[in-house]
Specification:
Methylamine Dehydrogenase, Chain H; 2 domains; 8 helices; single chain; 4-stranded antiparallel beta sheet; globular; 414 residues
Length: 414
């Protein structure tokens, strides 16, 4: 069997994501465009798809050793299609490479480009509705998730197991953050309140009240003494964590604040202005507005800071990611696909070294970007619904993404 057809499949899944293998007829047509001289191999690949090979590989990944998984799927395919052992094994391995079940396929970044790879580690099941927010603990060993089902869950990153579930009724949740020591979790939601949760204890949640609209963002200052929150009521608020009192309030965006990010040194704060289409940068200590950044042409939904405390990334419903360096007062760099079709962007996250940016979109794809070159490196297509939340661990070793179907995917980065 010719490996040119295999490479065409890997390329196709990298470019098209889940849509490349949802429709066998479309997959066949696209593969014939990429490798027209390899009709026999394409026939085998598409026939394998029709027999459910892609679904089997994705459904069983992580449940059994990879070698056992490939052997089981190969035997099933060989029986169904009366293929030779060589042809069946080649087809299954080709799909495994394209889907990232084997390293080197669609879910692995080009090592020559950034010497970084992204591979699916686990699927975390527990939410029954949209996963709206994700946050890693400072040591990267735990992941907090919050959803529209009112659930807040703490996951163990090494094995993907749920460690704690908040037992109180929280209503619709939309934001989550760990304290710097990892012992406290802040949760914000549609009830306009902020809940402070200590997962290791059984005590009642402490509540911070004052907002009059959904709490869309929460973040702790590096010393852990202050919590900053953003809300659809248009304000940013600074809270004393110990006394649970509001210390400072700023009117930020008249149409509500959609996203919030604190610089690593705790000196700068970025806010996404939703329908006013602006990103603002603030003095995180005194609350003074420093920069108003205009460049998006629709709602701004998400912001992230780079490790230099200067670079700001923003994503919006205009299907663009903008990269800002506010102090230089220059136009932002724009990350978008050549055809401009990425779908509404709901979430952005920067790797700790700011070499890689991850965006989550309406089209159920994660996109991996080379920040320096402004180039799209990969599309990761294992989600079933809109990707609403993304987070990178502080050590750069893990990535998490959550979707509208309640699924969380945990990825290894290196």
């Amino acid at each position: 069997m010719n490996d040119a057809a295999r490479q065409a499949l890997v390329q196709l899944v990298a470019q098209e994501g889940r849509s490349a293998y949802e429709n066998p007829r479309r997959c066949d047509a696209l593969l014939r465009d990429l490798a027209p001289e390899h009709k026999r191999e394409i026939f085998v690949l598409v026939s394998a798809l029709e027999q459910g090979v892609a679904n089997d590989l994705l459904a069983l990944q992580g449940q059994v050793p990879t070698g056992v998984l490939l052997a089981q799927v190969t035997a099933k395919l060989q029986s169904a299609l009366a293929l030779t052992d060589e042809a069946a094994r080649w087809a299954v391995e080709s799909w495994a490479l394209a889907l990232g079940v084997l390293p080197g396929g669609a879910n692995a970044m080009d090592a020559s480009a950034l010497a970084v790879s992204i591979k699916l580690q686990a699927t975390l099941a527990g939410h029954q509705a949209e996963v709206t927010a994700l946050a890693f603990s400072p040591n990267g060993q735990r992941l907090a998730s919050a959803g529209m089902d009112g659930l807040a869950v703490i996951w163990n990153v090494p094995d993907g197991q749920a460690l704690f579930r908040c037992s109180e009724d929280l209503g619709v949740l939309s934001s989550v953050a760990f304290s710097p020591d990892g012992s406290l979790v802040a949760l914000g939601g549609a009830d306009a309140e902020i809940a402070l949760w200590q997962p290791e204890t059984e005590g009642r949640l402490r509540r911070l009240r004052g907002h009059s609209g959904e709490v869309t963002g929460v973040t702790f200052t590096p010393d852990g003494k202050t919590l900053i929150s953003a809300s659809r009521d248009g304000t940013l608020r600074w809270w004393d964590v110990e006394s649970h009192t509001e210390r400072l309030r700023v009117s930020a965006h008249p149409d509500g604040v959609q996203g919030l990010a604190l610089s690593p040194n705790g000196q700068r704060l970025a806010s996404a202005g939703g329908w006013d289409r602006s990103v603002k940068v603030w003095d995180a200590v005194g609350g003074q507005e420093l920069h108003k950044l205009m460049g998006h042409t629709s709602q701004v939904t998400s912001v992230a800071f780079g490790p230099d405390n200067v670079l700001v990334a923003s994503g919006g419903w205009d299907e663009k990611v903008l990269l800002w360096e506010p102090q230089r007062q220059q136009q932002p760099r724009v990350l978008t696909e050549k055809d401009g079709l990425m779908g509404l962007i709901f979430a952005v996250a920067l790797s700790p070294d700011a070499r890689v940016l991850i965006s989550g979109s309406w089209d159920a794809l994660l996109r991996v970007w080379d920040v320096a070159q402004g180039q799209l490196l990969r599309k990761l297509g294992q989600h079933n619904g809109m990707v609403l939340s993304v987070a990178c661990s502080a050590d750069g070793m893990a990535l998490a993404s959550g979707d509208a179907e309640g699924k969380i995917l945990l990825w290894k980065m290196r």
